[in-house]
Design brief:
The complex is a heterotrimer of chains A (about 350), B (about 350) and C (about 400). By secondary structure, chain A is mostly helical. Chain A has helices spanning about 5-10, 15-20, 30-45, 45-65, 95-135, 135-150, 155-165, 170-180, 180-195, 200-205, 210-220, 225-245, 260-265, 270-275, 275-305, 330-340. Chain A is about 70% helix and about 0% strand. With about 350 residues, chain B is of the alpha/beta class. Chain B has 2 domains: about 1-215, Rossmann fold (3-Layer(aba) Sandwich), CATH 3.40.50; about 235-320 and about 330-345, no CATH class. In chain B, about 35% of the residues lie in helices and about 20% in strands. Chain B contains 12 helices and 12 strands. In chain B, the strands form 2 sheets. Chain B has an 8-stranded mixed sheet, sandwiched between helices. A 4-stranded antiparallel sheet of chain B has the order 2-1-4-5, with helices on one face. Chain C has a domain at about 1-65 and about 75-115 and about 240-405: Rossmann fold. In chain C, strands 6-7-8-3-9-10-12-11 form an 8-stranded mixed sheet, with helices on both faces. A 4-stranded antiparallel sheet of chain C has the order 2-1-4-5, covered by helices on one side. Classes of the chains: A mainly alpha (about 350), B alpha/beta (about 350), C alpha/beta (about 400). Chains B and C meet through helix 7, helix 8, helix 10 and helix 11 of B and helix 6, helix 7, helix 8 and helix 9 of C. The complex binds adenosine-5'-triphosphate, adenosine-5'-diphosphate, iron/sulfur cluster (2 copies) and magnesium ion (MG) (2 copies). Adenosine-5'-triphosphate sits at the interface of chains C and A.
Chain lengths: ~350, ~350, ~400
């Protein structure tokens, strides 16, 4: 998952950028779409700030490790504070903190995005599938999600991790994904249940559209916004969970992640020893990355839902009756209208 | 030529406790090609349930639906023949898709056009038929870029795509501004003529029902209580419920005195019953009994459907019928129905100054 | 209707601030302007003036989005950001004859003013009842806030009285809103609006979501209460047919402005503004002749920014040259039926339509315009029958009423 993926997720949920455009002819080439998406991003400061930060992280993850020499290599400078030679100082055993951070960033992000992708995929299949099929399949699938919801997540992860301790990255990703899909499956199921009885879905059934087409073409795009936001929080959750597990020593110590760095720092009494350069950078990375993802999520809400913006052009009191004649009104309002029609 | 025959249609919804709720009870009617039948009634009377059964979104509990005289037509053939326009133009189009998608899919799904140029042409033709031009521009738009009236046109075009013989329209204009309602209704009327559609127009607006249909059925709590040629039913309503409906419609041409008089009559007839006890169970008898100003003892039994207008030519008459004891027994009718009942609230003509 | 307001007013001073019946006016709005802030502000209300007399029903009609609700909110001073009143004045005359400047009221003053002097029934207010407490408790809250000296028993007694008054069983005080039907909830809201016996009740589409029968019952109820309690009503809806029947006077709004102001009873026969005529052609009459029905093609203009000329020009079948450049003023038509004005160049002596061009003269009596149902308008004819007549000089020179400044 890259920044481009995030923005294009936004672009595939196409009513959004289109709604953001001054009402003009829609469609146009991919260039126009991109331009529209760009303008949408620029409309929200939170979104642009969040995306910029995430781009920075992704860039670090991509090129950082190339700059790093040997993050695990033991040097002779032990526990040095930041200096010209060691930008972020060194660990107790003389490893370069900056190099470690570069490599950790890649691994942490990989775990975060991969686990979130897997969790989201599971929740989409189970939530939307159950919601659309209804009946027994729905009962069974929602029972499954409920079971996973009530099982306390962290202890389960800890139990599984202690089995796979020393296991591969893949095992970590799997464990986190496996334990974190349930909540968003429930959200998606509820949304699907409501979309399933929308008039446009009924109309598709009326002209004999096939089921899988109804799910994939008529329902899924209208849940894109929810799926994206669930995904974002799944990323944060996965990174935090991995950090937590690592901190508890339940991760393979040879994989460098932000959490593992903290684990080593803790073990070496860096906190009490005043070696702040060792634990502050990874801690800060976790915090800033989480904040950036949240900013993106809120920013997306902002551009998707005009009512959260500073100006609130959505009209009040429209519950009873839908208005007509949107052509003359502000595009934001049309968006509001669409949002309400979506509801 | 009847396009669709409905016999003894009953729709029942399961309820948490007790017996299923019968939203439509033994309803029979036919739709004819090139004609409009209006189904009127207050909300909750079961109008949409009829449409859902006809469009096979719910399975009727009893009864049969005959397409072109044949029973049990299913699948693609039925979908091609019976299509529906929904009430809310803001909910009936998918916000994620363009107008083009909304028309192309039904064309392809029902096999009315082949992928590619043929479908392109068919989409453009549909848009032109519903007066959405330039078709190419409109096809690219998404629903939120259209006004309510334009959306409803797209919804109509979508319903026409499978080239149906029967079109069901569920309150197609009640969510639109008054000023554009007529355009949509005129459009439906024109399409009905051009394509020889059998149109079922569901509404609670008696005035448009009268103007756009040749026949009217009045529904009350799942039963048709009065039916007949639209002018007769509206200008000379017989069933007490139809009279109530007619008395409730605004009258533009009426003078202040007429308005005041009509209001007095309404308030009086309301005073005779308990306004809010509408949902009481009436058992076997006439369902309108709790609200009926003319209720009498015999109304505790199920009323028969009787011819109310004298047959003008002796061969079955105009088909103006009502489900009411008042007309079953001439003696009872004469006694109970005052000459100037609520019908007085419907002056025959007020157009002349 | 029997309101004193319909007493003939001196022609020429239809909306004059000190007209002969100026004493009767409870609520007077002058040149009210409202904007919604935004990248390009929406000017939703553009200089609307009206007067509401004691005991009368003033109808406000117009399509969606032409500013009716915004006006209602402005008049009750309930506008919230980004809406902003950018001009105008509002004054209110209490029963005791005291003149209140609504714009000068502070928060506290406003709070007591609303409900007790003037109350508002919102569009789809029936969905605004608090779902978690009973109807009775919601009444009690209103009384506790505005009538602190009322004891609990008295509050309960009064709540029951009010429910009975709007035709709901008094025991419903114990019901939660979801146990009531839509029509009953709407009645509850109306009862609440009347709880403190206000002088003015503003109703914004109070019955639009309801079906005809329930709508009619509620309207009858409002009418009965009004006759009993003597409050005035501003009734807002897009259903002109309904307004013709229930109101005394009518203001037709288009694109944030009042385009016609007329006695309701005569309006159906003699609408002066092409927009009003279009609205009247938009719904069939239940018992009238079957006729060709047309509606108004097109949609209202974008309200962001300025509108050059007449806002209706794009949709108007009578438009002629000045319409695209000069904004029409609201001019008195000098009709005998009562104060009657319209903002249309066809009725402005300064802008004669070109000879031979269709024009509807400011006719003194509605009878020269055939009732619409008499006119089986032949399809294809762009002009309603009865219009192609040479325009006579406007009677009395048609003094400008206040309101729209060019
Ligand atoms: N919160 C808002 N932000 C921006 N513009 C608004 C807002 N509310 C209303 N408007 C604009 O103000 C104008 C008038 O709106 P208003 O709600 O008053 O119309 P209305 O006549 O009451 O319509 P309806 O009959 O649908 O209720 C419209 O152009 C609308 O787009
Ligand atoms: N899915 C459903 N489950 C249970 N009751 C229903 C359902 N749909 C409609 N009803 C009931 O059936 C009656 C008729 O409803 P409907 O067909 O929607 O009438 P209308 O279109 O006239 O409003 C109502 O009393 C309604 O509550
Ligand atoms: S059968 Fe009886 S209760 Fe029913 S409508 Fe007729 S008179 Fe009224
Ligand atoms: S001023 Fe001109 S455009 Fe406007 S309503 Fe009158 S005739 Fe039509
Ligand atoms: Mg319905
Ligand atoms: Mg409004």
């Amino acid at each position: 998952m890259t920044t481009a993926d995030i923005t294009s997720a936004d672009a595939t949920h196409a009513p959004v950028p289109a709604a953001a455009l001054p009402a003009g002819p829609s469609g146009g080439g991919p260039g126009a779409r991109l331009a529209a998406a760009w303008r949408t991003v620029r409309r929200s400061r939170r979104l642009s700030a969040g995306l910029a930060l995430i781009a920075l992280f992704l860039l670090t993850a991509a090129v950082g490790p190339l700059l790093a020499t040997d993050p695990q290599g033991f040097g002779t400078d032990l526990s040095q504070p930041p200096s010209g030679a060691h930008w972020l100082g060194t660990t107790q055993t003389g490893q370069d903190v900056f190099d470690q951070l570069m490599v950790s960033t890649r691994t942490s992000l990989l775990i975060g995005f991969a686990a979130a992708l897997a969790a989201t995929a599971i929740s989409v299949v189970i939530g939307i599938g159950g919601g659309f099929l209804g009946g027994w399949s729905d009962e069974a699938l929602s029972l499954l999600s409920n079971v996973f919801l009530v099982i306390p997540g962290l202890p389960l992860v800890i139990v599984i991790s202690s089995y796979t301790k020393g296991g591969s990255l893949l095992a970590t990703i799997g464990v986190i994904a496996f334990t974190s899909w349930a909540a968003s499956a429930r959200v998606l199921r509820a949304q699907t249940l409501s979309l399933r009885t929308r008039d446009y879905v009924l109309a598709a059934r009326l002209y004999g559209e096939r089921r899988w087409r109804i799910v994939l073409v008529e329902i899924l795009p209208n849940e894109a916004a929810i799926i994206v936001s669930q995904f974002i929080f799944a990323v944060i959750f996965a990174i935090l969970t991995q950090a937590g597990l690592a901190f508890l020593g339940l991760q393979n110590p040879s994989d460098l992640t932000w959490g593992n760095m903290l684990y080593f720092a803790q073990n070496a009494d860096a906190l009490s020893g005043g070696a702040w350069w060792w634990f502050v950078p990874p801690g800060l990375c976790i915090a800033v990355f989480g904040a950036a993802m949240s900013l993106v999520s809120f920013g997306l809400d902002e551009v998707l839902d005009p009512r959260l913006r500073v100006y609130r052009p959505a009209r009040r009191g429209r519950a009873g009756r839908q208005r007509t004649a949107p052509r003359r009104t502000a595009p934001q309002q049309q968006a509001a209208r669409r949002q309400e029609a979506d509801r | 030529m009847t396009a669709l025959d409905v016999r003894d249609l009953t729709v029942a919804y399961p309820q948490a406790h007790g017996r299923p709720f019968r939203a439509v009870e033994r309803l029979s009617f036919s739709l004819r090609a090139g004609r409009t039948l209006a189904l009127v009634g207050e909300s909750g009377s079961g109008k949409s349930s009829v449409l859902k059964a006809l469009s096979r979104l719910v399975r009727p509990a009893e009864g049969s639906i005959l397409l072109d005289g044949r029973e049990g037509v299913r699948g693609r053939e039925y979908r091609r023949a019976v299509q529906m326009v929904f009430q809310d133009p803001f909910a009936s189009l998918n916000p994620s898709h363009t107008v083009d998608h909304h028309l192309r899919r039904p064309l392809l799904a029902t096999g009315r056009a082949r992928r590619g140029a043929e479908a392109d042409e068919a989409v453009a033709a549909l848009l032109r038929q519903v007066n959405l031009t330039p078709a190419a521009d409109v096809a690219r738009k998404r629903p939120h870029e259209l006004s309510g009236g334009q959306r409803q046109r797209v919804a109509i075009a979508r319903a026409l795509a499978p080239e149906p013989a029967v079109l069901l329209a569920d309150e197609p204009v009640s969510m639109l501004d008054v000023s554009i309602r007529l355009e949509i209704l005129n459009l439906l009327d024109r399409l009905k003529r051009e394509r020889d559609l059998a149109l079922l127009y569901v509404t609670h607006d008696l005035a448009t029902a009268r103007h756009f249909s040749s026949e009217i059925m009045v529904m009350y709590r799942g039963e048709v209580v009065e039916r007949g040629p639209s002018d007769e039913v509206i200008l000379d309503p017989r069933h007490p419920y139809t009279r109530l409906l007619a008395a409730a419609a605004p009258r533009t041409g009426a003078s202040r005195e007429e308005v005041r008089e009509a209001r007095r009559v309404r308030l009086e007839s309301r005073a005779r019953r308990d306004a809010e006890r509408r949902e009481v169970v009436v058992g076997e008898g006439c369902r309108f009994r709790p609200r009926c100003p003319f209720a009498m003892d015999s109304c505790a039994r199920r009323p028969p459907e009787v011819q109310v207008a004298p047959p003008p030519d002796g061969d079955g008459g105009t088909g103006h019928r009502a489900l009411c004891w008042l007309y079953a027994d001439p003696a009872a009718a004469a006694g109970a129905l005052p000459a100037a009942g609520p019908a007085a609230a419907v002056p025959p003509h007020r157009a002349a100054p | 209707m029997n309101a004193p307001a319909t007493a003939p007013a001196g022609p020429g001073s239809p909306a004059g601030p000190d007209g002969p019946d100026g004493r009767d006016v409870v609520l007077r709005a002058r040149d009210v302007r409202v904007e919604y802030d935004g990248e390009r502000p929406t000017r939703a209300v553009r200089g609307v003036s009206f007067e509401l007399r004691r005991g009368e029903v003033l109808g406000i009609a117009g399509e969606s989005g032409c500013g009716k609700s915004t006006l209602a909110y402005a008049v009750t001073r309930m506008l919230k950001a980004p809406a902003r009143m950018t001009g105008g004045s509002l004054s209110f005359r209490t029963r005791e004859g005291e003149e209140l400047d609504l714009l000068a009221l502070d928060e506290e003053g406003l709070r007591t003013f609303r409900w007790s002097r003037l109350s508002l029934v919102f569009q789809s207010a029936m969905n605004a009842l608090n779902p978690v407490t009973t109807v009775g408790r919601q009444f009690a809250d209103v009384f506790r806030a505005h009538r602190p000296d009322m004891g609990p028993e008295e509050r309960d007694r009064r709540a029951r009285e009010l429910l009975e008054m709007v035709g709901i069983d008094a025991d419903r005080v114990r019901s939660h809103p979801h146990e009531l039907s839509g029509g009953m909830r709407q009645r509850v809201v109306i009862a609440m609006a009347l709880a403190l016996e206000p002088d003015v009740v503003i109703m914004d589409e109070p019955t639009t979501a309801l079906d005809v029968v329930v709508q009619r019952e509620i309207l009858d109820e409002v009418e009965r209460l009004r006759a009993e309690l003597g409050f005035s009503v501003v009734f807002i809806t897009h259903d002109l047919g309904l307004l013709l029947e229930i109101s005394d006077r009518l203001a037709v709004m288009y694109a944030g402005e009042v385009v016609e102001y007329a006695p309701a009873e005569q309006l159906a026969g003699g609408a002066a503004h092409p927009y009003t005529q279009g609205l009247l052609r938009s719904f069939p009459d239940l018992a009238g002749e079957r006729r060709e029905l047309r509606g108004i093609p097109g949609s209202p203009p974008d309200l962001r920014g300025d509108l050059a000329g007449c806002a209706f020009a794009d949709r108007c079948e009578h438009a002629f040259e000045p319409c695209r450049t000069t904004a029409p003023r609201l001019l008195d038509l000098g009709r005998a039926a009562g104060p009657w004005s319209a903002a249309c160049h066809l009725h402005d002596p300064a802008h004669r339509p070109p000879a031979g061009a269709p024009a509807r003269p400011g006719a003194p009596a509605p009878s020269d315009v055939p009732a619409p149902s008499d006119v089986p308008a032949p399809s294809g004819t762009p002009v309603p029958a009865g219009t192609p007549e040479p325009a006579p000089a406007a009677p009395g020179g048609g003094p400008t009423t206040e309101g729209r400044q060019p």
